[in-house]
Amino acid sequence: MNPKLSGSLRILLITIPDALQLPTSNFNDDEDDFQEFEAFDNDLTPRGFAPAGGSLAVQNVDMLRQRNSPKHFTNEYDIENLVVRRGQQFMMQVTFNRPLADGDDFQVEFLIGSNPTASKGSLVVVTFGDRKGGPWEGEIVEHQGESVILGITPTANAIVGKFRTYVAVVAGSGMQRTKRDTSTDLYVLFNAWCAEDAVFLANESERREYVLNDYGVIYQGSLGSVVNRDWIYGQFERGVLDACIHILDASRMPIYDRGNVIKLVRKGSAMINAQDDSGVLVGNWSNDYSMGQSPTSWTGSVKILLQYANTGVSVSYAQCWVFAGVFNTFLRALGVPSRVVTNFSSAHDNTGNLKTDLIFKEDGTPDERNTRDSIWNYHCWNEVWITRQDLPSGFEGWQVVDATPQETSDGHFRCGPASVKAIKEGLLCHPYDAGFVFAEVNSDLVFHKRDRFGTLTPYRVETDLIGLAVYTKALNGNSPVDVTLNYKYPEGSTEDTATMTRAEEYGCERDHSEIPDNPLSVSIHAEQVPHLSVLLGQDVSLQVNFTNRSISEKTIKAHLAGSIVFYTGVTSNRFKNHEFSVTVPGTETITQVIPVPSQEYTPHLGSQVSLNFIVTGKSEEDSVTGIKVLNLLTPNLTVQLSGRSRVRHMMYMTVSFTNPFNFSLGNVYMAMEGPGMMSYRRRYYK
C-alpha cells in the first residue's frame, strides 16, 4: 500500500439553518413589565380637555429596520430586530387610530432587564412635547396621516443590550400601553462613530476594520517563522449577538453597569475563560483533548458562542489564540473597536517582577523542576480602543485586555484594560494590570546555575530577548503590522532606560546582579535540509556558533538538549541529549554542525510543532547558554471554488490535502466554515 495519503473533500455551499437552537437572553428577559393600563394617582388630573375625534390608541409600531440599519452600520446583523448604536438618532413609526391632534400626549418606553428603574437607566421614557421625559431625546420628524415618524436619540452612555419597547398613550385617568411585542425589541450597541461615546474612533478605515470586519488573521509561530491562522469572528451571524448578551447575563453583571465599557470589557475578559466563573472556554495546554476539541480544530468563534449560549456548559478546549479570537467577536458584536495582537517571545512571569528566571543544573542541563517562569513562543491578547476618562489625559487609545487565564486580577482570571501608552512609559500605577503586561514585553531573561545545595548564582542577563515583536493584522489586508513601538522604546535608548527606571519606582523588580564580562558567547541557527524553510517531517541541521572574544584559546565542554515544547515554553518531550567539546582560538568563531534527523523528533511531536534547543557550555572560567526555538511549518490545504458565485445559488468548494510524509496519517479531521454561507462543519477521515 502506498503510505502516502491524498484526498479531497467536495462541499456544497448552501445556506441552511444551524443545528443549534438560537439563544435568547435569560436574565435580561426575566421581565415583569408594566400593565397595559396604568392608572394615575387619585390626585392627578388631566392636563386639558380630550381632543375631538375620540380616544387616541396605538394601532401599530414599526422600528423601520431597513431605514435605520445602514445609517447605524448594523445592516449586516442577521437579526429580525432593529440594532442601533447609542448616541445616534434612529427612527420609528407609530400608527394611531386617527391623526394626532392638539392635546394628544403619548410616550415611548424602553426597558431592559428585570425590575427596570429610571434611576438606574434601565427604564427610559421618551416624550414628544413640553412634558419632561428621560435622558433620551425624542422628536416628531414627520406626520403621515394617522402615522408619525419619531426620531429618538439614546444617550452616548446608554446601557448596551436588548431593550423592550412600548408606546403609551396618556389618557384622562392613566396610560394605555401597547402589548408586549418581541418584534419591537431594540438592541443598543456602543458607537465608535459618536464623538461622545467612550469608544469613539475617529478614523473611518479603522472603524470598518476594528468594528465591522468579521474576518481576521491571527499570527502564531516564532519571529523567524510567522504562521498565519485565519479566524472567522462572525459577529453578525445569526444568534451571535444574543450569545454575547447571554454571556453578560450568565455573569450576573448588573444591567446598569453595561453602559460602562471599562466594566464591560473587564467582565468579558473574565467570562471568556471558564477558570473561575463557568465562562465560555476551558483552557487546555496538554496533548489530551479527548473530552472536547483540540484548540487547533476551531476555525472561528460562531460555533463556540452558540454552543455555550444554548447549553450553558463551558466549551472544550482553547489556547490563547482561541480565547483572543472569541473575545474579539464578543467585543466587535457589542460595538467595541478591537483587534487581536500577538507578542512574540512573551514572558509569563509567575513572581510578578521584571525577571524571567531560567535555572540550570551544575552540568549545564535545564533544571525544569525548579524553573517556574516561562517564555511563550508567542502569546495572543486583544486591544480595545477606549478614551479612558478615568485616567489622566494622554492614556486614551488602545488598551490591552486578555481573556487567557494566566494570573488573577481582583480575584478573577482576567487582565486589563491596561493603557498601551502607560505601558510604554512605565507608568504602572494606572489600572488595570499594567505591570503584568509590562513584564510580558519587557522582562529581563536571567540565567542561573543551581548548585547541589539549591543556591542560585546568576551568570548571564539578556535584556532584549523578551517582546521581540508585537504584530496585528493590517488595515484592509492580511499582512502583519509591527506595533512593537507602541509598547516599548528601542532597546537601550535613553527613553527605554527612563521607562525601566519608572517601572522600578512603581514596584517592578529588576535584576541588578553584577555579572562579570564573559568573553564567550554562543548562538544557534537552524537550517532545513535540503530547503531553507523549516518544514515538518524534514531533517534539520543545527549550526552552533561559539565566539571567543579573548586573546587566549578556550576549550568548551558543551551540551545540547532538544525538546518538543508547547508554545508556552513548557517541555512536552525530551528527544535529544548530545555532549560535545569544541576548542575556540582567541578572537575567533568556531561553528559546530549538529544534524537532527526527522526520525528523532517526529515520534514525540503529538499536537506540538515547536522544537526547543538549548546549548550550554563551560570552559575553565566561563559559562555560556544559547536558546533556539524552531517552529515547524505544516502542509497547506488547497481550496478551490467552482460554479457561479451568485447570491442564493449553489456553488461547490473542493478542499484538498496531500500528505507530504513517508507514513500514513490516521484519525484526520478537516473543519471549515464561511460567514454568511455555511456554518461550522467537520469531516472525519479514519
Automatic annotation (TrEMBL):
Keywords (A to Z) from UniProt: Acyltransferase, Calcium, Metal-binding, Signal, Transferase
EC number(s) stated in the UniProt entry for this protein: 2.3.2.13
Cofactor requirement: Ca(2+)
Active-site residues per Swiss-Prot or TrEMBL entry: 320, 379, 402
Family matches, as InterPro entries: Ig-like_fold, Ig_E-set, Papain-like_cys_pep_sf, Transglutaminase, Transglutaminase-like, Transglutaminase-like_sf, Transglutaminase_animal, Transglutaminase_C
BP GO annotations: blood coagulation, fibrin clot formation; nervous system development
Signal peptide interval: 1-21
Family in the record: Belongs to the transglutaminase superfamily. Transglutaminase family.
Protein name, per record: protein-glutamine gamma-glutamyltransferase
The organism of origin for this protein: Cyclopterus lumpus
Lineage: Eukaryota, Metazoa, Chordata, Craniata, Vertebrata
